[in-house]
Design a protein that fits this description.
By secondary structure, this protein is of the alpha/beta class. The chain has helices at residues 48-55, 78-88, 104-114, 119-132, 148-160, 178-195, 206-210, and strands at 6-17, 20-32, 37-41, 63-68, 71-72, 89-92, 166-170, 198-202, 214-219, 222-228. Helices cover 34% and strands 28% of the residues. The strands form 2 sheets. A 6-stranded mixed beta sheet has the order 6-7-8-3-9-10, with helices on both faces. The chain has a 4-stranded antiparallel beta sheet with strand order 2-1-4-5, with helices on one face. Bound molecules: adenosine-5'-diphosphate and magnesium ion (MG).
Length: 233
């Protein structure tokens, strides 16, 4: 059997809040292959963000295993995990978290600049990514001069600047009107197809989820269904 791209097994996560125990993830197991585009649906509070944060190594589970291309992620030390995350994973959240004092192209380039990559090269790549998300004409705009949908497209471009193998998006359309949200999902499909980036997209919008090739559903702390739906162009 070949090594899976990403495999999580028996992930458990419990929160304790004012003496009350919340078992959010109760043995989540799933395998995601390279190049997949997966939605993760489930009711509000079902643990979608918690699970995505575990996948993204932003949060450690109480128990469970995760391997990325055969490498055991939770056995890495802190420095190794940070390096793995920077090198491998791009994040898009519900809020875009763009830096208000920088232009769109500077925001997109920021992760590369923080990693001390060549500035000229980083800005050039950032412009290319802005073009990909259809925002060449907004490159010099600051976040305050962008619409919600444009800001989220900038955030998507920024998530791609370090060429992540895995893109994790947590309700990226949650703050957008339906048509703009659909535009983001179209972009996610294009980016998945053209750049080969594997992506997991949390959404509670079932219609948007249905537009992605594979759906995972969280219920009662477990992934209860993994439906293969026909990919749409
Ligand atoms: N830091 C935390 N402390 C305590 N409980 C939390 C914390 N984060 C999330 N929870 C609880 O865990 C459950 C799952 O949360 P979350 O993963 O954010 O769900 P979703 O993203 O599906 O809406 C919810 O009941 C939430 O209240
Ligand atoms: Mg959430």
């Amino acid at each position: 059997m070949s090594t899976p791209f990403l495999a999580v097994e028996d992930i458990f996560k419990t929160y304790f809040l004012r003496g009350k125990r919340i078992d959010v993830l109760r043995g989540v197991s799933v395998t995601i292959e390279k190049g997949e585009l997966v939605s993760l649906v489930g009711a509000s509070g079902s643990g979608k963000s918690t699970f995505l944060h575990v996948l993204g190594t932003l949060d450690a589970p109480a128990a469970g295993r995760m391997t990325f291309e055969g490498r055991s992620v939770f056995d890495m030390n802190d420095a190794e995990v940070a390096e793995f995350r920077n090198r491998t994973i791009g994040f898009v959240f519900q809020s875009h978290f763009l830096l208000p004092e920088f232009t769109a192209v500077e925001n997109v380039a920021m992760p590369a600049l923080i990693m001390r990559k060549d500035r000229k090269e980083a800005l050039k790549r950032a412009r290319g990514l802005l073009e990909r998300v259809g925002l060449s004409h907004r490159a010099e705009h600051k976040p305050g001069e962008l619409s919600g949908g444009e800001s989220q497209r900038v955030a998507l471009a920024r998530a791609l600047i370090l060429e992540p193998a895995l893109l994790l998006a947590d309700e990226p359309t949650g703050n957008l009107d339906p048509a703009t949200g659909e535009g983001i999902h179209t972009l996610l499909r294009e980016v998945n197809r053209d750049l080969g980036v594997t992506a997991v997209v949390v959404t509670h919008n079932e219609a948007l989820a249905r537009s992605l090739p594979r759906r995972l559903r969280l219920l009662d702390g477990q992934v209860i269904a993994s439906e293969d739906v026909a990919a749409q162009a």
